[in-house]
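step: validate -> pass
step: tokenize input -> pass
step: predict -> running
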Amino acid sequence: MLKARNLIVLAWAVFAGLDVAFASPQSPASQPQFSFQIVTTPNENQPYPFQNYLASASASSETDIWSVGASTIHYDGTTWTAFPAPGMTGGGTSLLTGVADVASNNVWAVGYINFQVIGAYESPVVENFNGTSWSTFPSPQFPPPDTASLNSIAAISADDIWAGGELYEDPFALPLLEHFDGTSWTQSAPPVTDCIVWSISADATNDVWAAGSTLGGGTCILHYNGSVWTLADSPNQCCGYNLLTSVVALSPENVWAAGWYVQSPTEDRPELTLVEHWNGSSWEIVSSPNVGQAGKFSSRLNGIFASSANSLWAVGQSINISSDEGYTLAMHWNGTKWAIVSTPDIAEHGFYADDLDGGIAIPHGDIWLVGSNDVAYTLVIQGVQ
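step: predict -> pass
step: emit ->
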């Protein structure tokens, strides 16, 4: 199943032939006071073209940070180290899409594994880190020809964790919603038959949000009130394809979702940023910037996270349509407006193929952005005040 986020990769100066540059065609207007720099990270799946890209990040403290994707790496406050996870070989048939760092000895990750590479039947996977190593954990499975994957995870507490994804039961694309009660993972009844969940977030047991898209190209937002999941009314931008890739719930009156849309119903480019906000009563589109001259660049948002209620970050990729080069894209919300923030890029042999897919903000500390360059290498960018 092709991921909608189009994850890509990066390498640090460890690799020969890489040029480090601040090459993103971005405006530094209204930047928060952070200095962003690429840090050295391992690539456990070698050699090229095996994949190592990173899809998500989570932390229990500033010295306990995890990032997962095609590879799995950990930061101890000084160094990033690879901790191989079962089934994640970098061959393009398996991926950890989300991670929740509950404690240093209790970390959860979700994704999918393709046990039949030729048959292309994807199965959801849940993995747990016990402080020493990663292992798979029993979770609901779906026999072929159904395919399923988990795309995101949100932990409220050690015994209250949600995961969201997709279950294809032809002709339906059902939202896959699973809950962990401290003992086992169980599937919840989906409220609709057409919604792919790309992201899930919670600020309380009775306030959980999931965001994604329909097969027809519309936004899809679901809400859990502590008892049942329901479909929320979410807006679409114009007349083309709309996709919400990430959601962050801060309070019952403050929830954000981000993604991208295409204006034309017949064209697939350029993509433009899409940001939506829940104010406690309705979802509304919030104006967000795009990179470069109109029609010359695509701008996609893949992740959104918060430093505080009035300080949010959204990350993704900008693409030069004529050259097909990709650059890191980061935006900041200061409580009033969104503004693009300059972030570094890496060129492999003179070509840029950088992407950001997620990030975290350490309370009163650093910002961490994760992604990839050319799909083959991990990319981690640290923002320091």
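step: describe -> The first strand starts at residue 18 and ends at 21.
step: cleanup -> pass
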